[in-house]
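[step 3/7] fold_predict: job queued, chain A
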Amino acid sequence: MIRYRLQCAHAHEFEAWFASSASYDAQAAGGHITCPECNSREVGKSIMAPNVALRARGEVAIPDDEAPARYRNLVREVRRVLVSGSEDVGARFPEEARKIHYREVEQRAIRGTASPDEARALVEEGVEIMALPRLPEDAN
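[step 4/7] structure written:
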């Protein structure tokens, strides 16, 4: 059996099961598939996410209540490593990043601040930058 998400010409979406993809093709070609909402026969496949099985059949997923705390701690550790291995250039970040990119100064890891427009301009110039991960305590 195969399940498809379908959409009619009037943008109504619905799901239907078929014995195989060939079965769907035959029914669609014969005009045997209709929209349950408006009875339109102009029906086609809609985009849908695949159903990927990650566990063996019969296994039950156990919720991990500690996952959010582990993820936050991982982000804290990544940020700690990035900060400890870089020079803080503050508001001079766009200027310093360009100098490093164009090899006008020694290559080194830097961090600092840039406005969204400055960051966009750097990216458009081909300067490789990334934002440091934000933590909940950054908002306080």
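[step 5/7] annotate
The chain has two domains: 2-45, 77-130.
The helical segments are 21-29, 67-84, 93-101, 116-125.
exit 0
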